From TrEMBL:
This is IS5/IS1182 family transposase. It comes from Blastopirellula marina. It comes from the Bacteria.
């Protein structure tokens, strides 16, 4: 059970990191446009 929890946590952190990067890029693009 613990192994599955850690695996889920790892996937969640990696996906959240990608999401944060996407948000940062969006902000940068908005600043460039404006």
């Amino acid at each position: 059970r613990n192994r599955r929890l850690t695996a889920d946590y790892e996937t969640n952190t990696s996906s959240s990191e990608a999401f944060i990067q996407l948000a940062m890029i969006r902000l940068m693009v908005r600043r460039l446009v404006n």
